[in-house]
Input
Amino acid sequence: MGNCLRSVTSDDISLLNGGDRSPGAESLGPPPPYQEEAPVYYPSPNQRRPANQLTEEEQVRIAQRIGLIQHLPTSIYDGSKKNRECVICMSEFVYGDPIRILPCMHIYHLDCIDDWLMRSFTCPSCMEPVDAALLTSYDSTNTT
Amino acid sequence: MSNIAAARIQREFKEVVKCDEAAKCAIKVEMVDSDCMELRGEIAGPPDTPYEGGNFILEIKIPETYPFNPPKVRFVTKIWHPNISSKTGAICLDILKDQWAAAMTLRTVLLSLQALLAAAEPDDPQDAVVAKQYKEDPQAFEDTARHWAQVYAQAPCNNPGCSAKVNQLVDMGFTETASREALSMHSWDVEKAVEYLMS
Output
């Protein structure tokens, strides 16, 4: 559990610092000049705010959200699933595409669904809230 | 990011063109500009509503962050409905705000708007005057909605009473639009409408 928490925190920092998932990006000094825009976050689906204007409470919520998202299982598309198309980008899955599987068993491209889950923690297909289902499934995978 | 948006809109556009509802002329969509970020939608007024027979034009703007954020939709055709502003055409509908889901498409949005015309939600109004009339004087609401659909959305239903009152005010020197709005707001009470126009 301690390990788990630590990995969550380090991910938070890398994502808040630019969302490019490269660990230690902040230690490389100021961002390159072409990176003019601050990363933008969505405290709710219709609110759009640059990362440096978020309240502390929102930062904590975002960090928690990133942590939760990372508990959701990921996989590589191998054609074994029923869904053939990612409904977010509406393109067909290609063998080898990184995917994420939600508790309701709907699958999406990893990048597509992570971007969505940062705005709304529900499945875009069935509107099932991810929180509750996630906690139950997390519990059951822990005990088995 | 906008790559996803453009690719999706092209697929959704085709979906609308090919769907059953389009074949029945219930919904329609057209590209306004070449980069697909602005579209023109059209929905038919649902049967057994005051909007029946009318054609309602919508302005659809696709944000760069689509489909993570909903399209911005507004009625271009003037319409009398509790959840749509009679002045600006702005729409109050949950799926165009916080209930938007990335799996929704142009087709489902157009069908939801058509459903909204058939089932208003006066407790969640966009236009307070219309919502009040809808709840307190359903007959006046229906007459007004029907009259607006006939004047602005080419619905065939004719209500000579409303047109006569509008003409009466026009003869007094008020513009047609202002007269219609004043009469609609005051449930076709000519005296109150005149009072409102004079104030």
Remarks:
- Chain B touches chain A at residues 4, 7-8, 11-12, 65, 67-70, 97-98, 100-103 (CB under 8 Å).
- Residues 2-18 of chain B form the longest helix (17 residues).
- Chain B has two domains: 2-118, 128-198.
- The radius of gyration of chain B is 18 Å.
